[in-house]
Amino acid sequence: MTPDINSNPATATRRPGVRGWLLMTPLLAWLFAFVVAPTLIMLVYSFCERDDIGQVVFTFSLDNYRKIFVPQYYGILAWSLGAAAAVAGFLAFGFYADESLSYKLFDLTGMTRRQLIALVAGAAGYCAMREQVYAMESGGNFLRILFISVELAAICTVICALVGYPVAYFLGRASESNRNKLMMLVMIPFWTNFLIRTYAWITILSKEGLLNTFLLSAHIIKEPFDIMPSTLAVYIGTVYTFLPFMILPIYGSVEKLDNSLIEAAFDLGAGPVRAFSNIIVPLTRPGIVAGILLVFIPAVGMFAINDVLGGRKVPLIGNKIDTQFKSARDMPFGAALGIILLLLFAVAFFLTLRKEEKN
User: Fold this and answer.
1) Which of 179, 243, 296, 349 is the most exposed place for a label (fewest CB within 10 A)?
2) Please, is 304 exposed, middle or buried when counting C-beta atoms within 10 Å of its C-beta (0-12, 13-18, 19+)?
3) What number of H helices and E strands is found in the chain?
4) Quick count: other Cβ atoms within 10 Å of Cβ 112?
């Protein structure tokens, strides 16, 4: 009989020695050089100022953050964060309630009264907050840009989840002989450079592009659509770019599903919707959460797609940061915007990690 290593207290509490840390040295060095050090430099620059010729003046100042969070809009900001947290919490994780009800996202009869009230209040708060943010004067310009960036990323994340989950589920339940071939189709876009794929959408969505040509030749439309440059084109390009990042982690969770649990649910009288919401969704939730993070975080700071397909008509935080470091030559303010973006990522990751630990 093989002894259980974990049953020995001496081995269970063993810590890595010098050799273990030496093996970690390359990874730690890489993290420090390309993650920790640049972040610290950006943090220091965010509290600096610039002179008349664009040079950085190393002095402590909060003016860069005051440009973003204008005092008269503090109330709107607090209301925005509360409403966004309520809506995001419901869509991504479900509200904190009895565990037997926390996954009944698609079974409205299983929602508690508190969940329903929170959903309605969050949705109403989001609509009211959105109207106020879009009506801001020039003083709240950067707060409006941040809101638009988060809104675009959130909508694209939801679309990627709705489109990507059925695809990932089909891939995960396919036969092994077809699974690799189907996965190859998902991975094909990564064989081409990101910018080349983005510019390719110009030939598809432009007024004389492939889409309008096909619709006109098929007599579906009488006049060509003027899709580019527009917000719709930005949404299409963003969803296309990040959809594989939603499919792949969900596919990994679906592939590990135990068929016996699904069959047991049907044997106990559960219908397809109840089996899906109570069995399949909880078991694949790690993949869903990973996909949400992999799509939402880079989509917030995305700017190349907006430049190519949107003509910068949609002001996004990524474009603003790019402008500050290039044409405006205001590195301290660009660093402050980057720190705000980094804090937003940290909050999203912390909420996800906290929910994972509770489960």
Assistant:
1) 349
2) middle
3) 17, 2
4) 14
